[in-house]
């Protein structure tokens, strides 16, 4: 692995290490200096605002890489810079190399694209109720009707099955569509194409493609297997989800490796691009015939003259009336865009190490191509002006549901940022501001705008949408769905089943929200759009009708039992004996504090408003440590915060609701006990005593709602002090009713100067918390 840089210099905005080799950056060719100078701040802004750890780029003009380098850090922890030789997993860009290897055999007469696949894989036998057999041409152009993912070796499967096992599992499936009738993007299809190579050549797929394609092209830093000398320079990649979770991406190998498991660098992919522009020729030979490439760049099973669709491997489209071919790639923690204008022989490769950031890599690649075209035409380079974050107050004011006819959009306030989601589903997108217009500018979407035209209406495209205000809680979902709602699958890729707008929804691959159509009690259809159109979810139920697993699009997702058993109290096993922790905490000193802080004025909340109810868990054993911490079930706060809480309680009364407090002021020694008792993986749910908690300052409160009519607590998505993702304020699971109550509590609290904690829907900090000292007064000593 490259060592941290000894010294650095800047080449048009790229950090270059003096310790690394000369090939780690290619300075811009003289005629492309203006392109590099324009793109550098644009890329840096995208990285800063999208939290991209590393990004590498290469630009190609015919037979030359005219600029290449890296931004950010290949290894953020050790500050190792990203370069043009940083290795990334390039996801579905892998498909191009699998398909080129097949086309070489077509040229040799060893393979016929239009014969049934069983000609080459006799045991390949997915259920096909149609008269038309599956062919390689169909598989390579996503027209076979095969399922998106194989049951074994799919995108979710971390068990490392062989390619043979992966393809064999497709015999458990049935075609989704009649071959050739509809595009159905399928990783399973390209996995099968790769297995044709392995089976007919009698050689492991990764070895065969390396010898037939990668080595002849001189792609020395590319492979379909995690070879040590290659993955030594692999960028550290990161996952994220809209509910707030972030973690380092898993690195397991996919069973359908031909569809998405290639490792490469932007320089190697730049080399590949030069060969494409040379019609298949490279120094020392020809990788593929020019006529063969032409056939691969033509939409298959499309009308004559079609300019969009899938060719053989390649995605075909246009960019500002220029023919554009290439492919995107997405695999755990990585996003790639390989884009070529074959008629102009211009290309761009952009890769980053953050999950589902394909809208950003696509944007940068397209802007790079536009800049290159401008230079060629002697024109000025024009890049989109920067957006800016939307003011938090505007975010709170504009959030809500807006509809027109049967369609609409939901706008969410997520940690002071504005996100949108079409009411029919899809992927949530972030909005920012540019010239009083809301611009789609996030990781998942970079194409669109929304214009506010009044206090309760927006212009979205050509449609005016009107705010809809729900004054009362949504109805509970039907009982037959109750047991299905929850989480299924793996830590690295979780499937969420939840209810919204009177329908079950599936949130799959972290960011894709799909409304489901009920076929029967346990069977649901995916919608007619998105990744899994034409496929189903089939649930298996256990005791009491609770879902134990779901087979979603041929993949088995087991129920994740993350919630407290029976919906009760979440509990941990303290890392050390409680008595020992208490003795140590009582003897410890509070953190040093400035003298300028305000004098505390703790008041008892129920003295100010007796209708506020208490359920002080830490005065009982009904808490996450099963230990009594407080001498009495009382709740104190600094007077301004307590008075604001009284106003919140009054504002909730018209809804038939009141506040139920679990905790308010907390002595510092209790915070230290919590911290020292809690495992590291759950410490986001407890405060670090070195800083003191906002509870210690008397300026934080843990609370929920109760029903004024029944006096009973309101059911929320997660339970109090639950140390799971269900506690996140933006958690998308549960039911519409639960989320409505949670969001109502947040909206009213924030209207009175409180701010929700990003990992706990029940925890709110008062705006003046920093002005008060950390206190260690026991309840009996409060004045």
Keywords:
single chain, 783 residues, 40 strands, disordered N terminus
Q: What would you call the quaternary organization?
A: single chain
Number of strands: 40
How much is the radius of gyration in Å? Answer: 29 Å
Distance between the termini: 61 Å
| Order of the strands making up the biggest sheet | 5-4-3-16-15-14-13-12
* C-alpha geometry: globular
Total helices: the number is 18
Structural class: alpha+beta
**Helix coverage percent of residues?**
10-25%
Please, what is the average pLDDT? 95
Low-pLDDT runs: 1-22
Provide the β-strand percentage band: 25-35%
Main beta-sheet strand count, sense and barrel state: 8 strands, antiparallel
How would you describe what is shown here?
With 783 residues, the chain is an alpha+beta fold. Helices cover 23% and strands 25% of the residues. The protein has 18 helices and 40 strands. The chain has an eight-stranded antiparallel β-sheet, sandwiched between helices. Strand 18 and strand 19 (417-422) form a beta hairpin. It is globular. The model is unreliable at 1-22 (pLDDT under 50).
